[in-house]
Amino acid sequence: MRNVEKKNTVRLILRGQTNNFGNTIYDYANKLVITGLGSQASYFMGIYQMSETIVGIIFDILGGITADQKNRKQILVFTDLVAALATFIVFLQYSKKNVWLLVITNIILAILYSFNSPTYKAIVKDLLSKQNIYKYNSYSKTISEIISVCSPLVGMVIVSFFGFKYGMLINSLSFLISAILEWQFKVIVPLTTQKKTAKESKLQSLKSGLAYIYGNKELLVVLIASSLINFFLAGYNFSVPFTNHMARFSHMYAYVLVAESVGNIAGALFNSFWNKDLRIAQYSHFLFGVGVTTLVVPLLQLYWPLILVFFGLSSACLTIFNIQMMSGIQAEVADDFIGRVFGVIFTIAVLFMPVGTYVFSLLNIKNWLVFSVIGIGEVLVYIFMFGAIKLVQTK
Question: Which residue has the higher pLDDT, 85 or 190?
């Protein structure tokens, strides 16, 4: 790995995990405040969460287009500086009398995230070679999972000892540190392709981006499969909190979350040590692992330690699939279309997750059988993805 790529890798990881740490504490503190609003808690929690979904649907595609048309480094620095300012204002001005400030700030951050996130995914291609993209995503995912376990605990300590507002201050500082790290990125790939895309209008750019995705049949299959998986993952995330009731064990849900975190870390570590970039038909097999390990959970309901093992295996398979998919897109998609591709991915995720949650809330299956339904769905997605890829490759 060239020295400049080593520095870029370190800065990318530090930036991503600094942001992740600050956002986790921010979200924890916000939800803690909202749940303490008594009769208004449900109302404000609904607005707080729905605002993110609505903003994502409206702005994610636009964020992807902008990432292809403008200087990606400048977009990242600007959005993180504005986010730092917005959260610092909350730190200075918040009181229980102006709880709307939380909602407004969350909307502002969601808009900024719609531009920042696809840009951050796209700029990896400008900073790292293909081989190092796979390494970076493995390292980043491993550290991210470790931080995701520690952040809520740190957030709890900070809010308990120093108060809610200092959670906002930490998030503000995390955005500022992210902007400083982004400013030090050293681009190794010329940005000439962005100048060509910048000449297009937003509508023309969207049309050409969609045409690129439609023309790249393998990429199209991956996007369809990932959207379908998001549907079933939403059902999974909806059902997992009810495992306490299913197991008649008050701490089962907590143990499941720990098992998932361990599985995510193990999957990321395995991918980094394995150090292989797989073709789509190869990494699609990990979806089969996700589905089968979820499918058999109801058969193990009398042996909850085994259930935890299978939840962990499912998370490990999903992590490897996600790392390979994300790395493949970053490495293979043309530089002048990569922002729009990620914009489409995030939009699809935003659209299908609420739909999946709604469908599984209507099914209202509050026993272990729900995981068989989810697992069967995931296996069917695997069959579709593997079959469609083989069909595309034979043409």
Answer: 85
